[in-house]
Design a protein that fits this description.
By secondary structure, this protein is of the alpha/beta class. About 30% of the residues lie in helices and about 15% in strands. It has a 3-stranded parallel sheet, with helices on both faces. Strand 7 and strand 8 form a beta hairpin. The longest helix is centred in the middle third of the chain and has 16 residues. It is elongated, with a radius of gyration of 22 Å.
């Protein structure tokens, strides 16, 4: 019974008057939210001047915007979809041949469906930086970070070891050579430093 009033309260407290016209109509609506605003029940906002929740009136989706995801106007304009496929970057005693096979198969399937695919397999060899597979670039830790931050890729497929520590986010991520982890926190630190340097 209190749903309509709760929706009106959300609209009063959360939505500036300039944005209210966006809730009118029936076209799909994508809400671009940060970590704090993503916790709010945006689907409950009344559609237009009605009391019906917007999510019941029109297609409505959320898009989480983080510090290390590019804004829509920062994404390079290009034709076609691009994918990054990473296979077995740990190597050594942690080598996963099946992960390399999976990465090759995924890249082949994506290429056959018209995506431009970048395939990275295994760790770089010490000294030379060459990959363990002839004709295929290695999954170098620094290069993977650079590619992830470039905003060039629509899809990322990772095949390899990963670890998860519920108590420590800095021990949760993808495993690379020399047991280095690539975590979300790593990407956030890098972009924060980049934006501070850019001033």
């Amino acid at each position: 019974a209190d749903r309509p009033e709760a929706g009106r309260g959300l609209r009063r407290h959360l939505l500036h008057n300039d944005f209210r016209p966006l809730l009118e109509g029936f076209d799909p609506l994508v809400l671009e939210l940060d970590a704090e605003t993503a916790a709010l029940p945006w689907e409950m906002l009344p559609a237009g001047e009605t009391d019906r929740p917007a999510a019941l009136v029109r297609p409505l989706a959320r898009q989480l915007r983080t510090r290390y995801s590019p804004r829509p106007f920062e994404v390079p304009r290009r034709s076609g979809w691009q994918a990054l496929v990473i296979g077995d970057p740990a190597g050594g005693t942690a080598e996963l041949r099946s992960a390399r096979d999976e990465a090759r198969e995924v890249a082949r399937e994506l290429n056959e469906r018209g995506l431009r695919c970048t395939l990275l397999l295994g760790p770089p060899e010490p000294g030379t930086g060459a990959g363990p597979v002839d004709g295929v670039a290695p999954a170098d830790y620094a290069e993977v970070i650079d590619r992830l931050l470039s905003g060039e890729y629509d899809f990322v497929h990772f095949c390899g070891h990963a670890v998860h520590d519920r108590q420590r986010s800095d021990r949760t991520g993808w495993v690379f050579d020399e047991e280095r982890l690539l975590t979300g926190a790593d990407l956030e630190k890098i972009t924060s430093t980049y934006h501070a340097w850019r001033g």
